[in-house]
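User: Here's a structure from my thesis project, written as structure tokens. My advisor, Dr. K., wants to see whether a designed sequence matches the one we expressed. Can you design one independently, without my sequence as a hint?
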């Protein structure tokens, strides 16, 4: 049985192996659902503008900040009213859709890469 080109599990198929790990078929089903829902996908380089730069993803992403002369990374989950300092100046931050990542930098801009979750 398939729907929208994706193979669904048959009633006789198991979702877990005897050792508790997911079966290949179940893993493929979950992966197909994720792809159909718009999750996952290739990483995207985000051009960092003037400081303080704000990035707001449309979907959940892993935002990776590297390099540059960064003095602060902060995020907001209330539309930008309140920003919380993350205590790091580089690394990975998980952002939900509509979160705001604020990057304060001077001199050399950092590199920002967004990887859909």
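Assistant: Designed independently from the structure alone:
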């Amino acid at each position: 049985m398939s729907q929208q080109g994706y193979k669904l599990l048959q009633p006789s198929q198991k979702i877990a192996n005897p050792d508790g790990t997911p079966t290949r078929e179940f893993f493929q089903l979950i992966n197909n659902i994720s792809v159909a829902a718009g999750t996952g996908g290739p990483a995207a380089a985000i051009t960092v503008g003037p400081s303080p730069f704000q990035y707001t993803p449309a979907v959940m992403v892993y935002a990776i900040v590297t390099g540059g002369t960064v003095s602060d990374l902060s995020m907001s989950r209330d539309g930008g009213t309140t920003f919380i300092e993350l205590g790091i100046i580089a690394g990975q931050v998980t952002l939900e859709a509509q979160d705001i990542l604020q990057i304060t930098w001077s001199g050399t801009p950092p590199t920002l890469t967004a990887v859909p979750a």
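When you compare it with your expressed construct, this may help: The chain has a mean pLDDT of 86.
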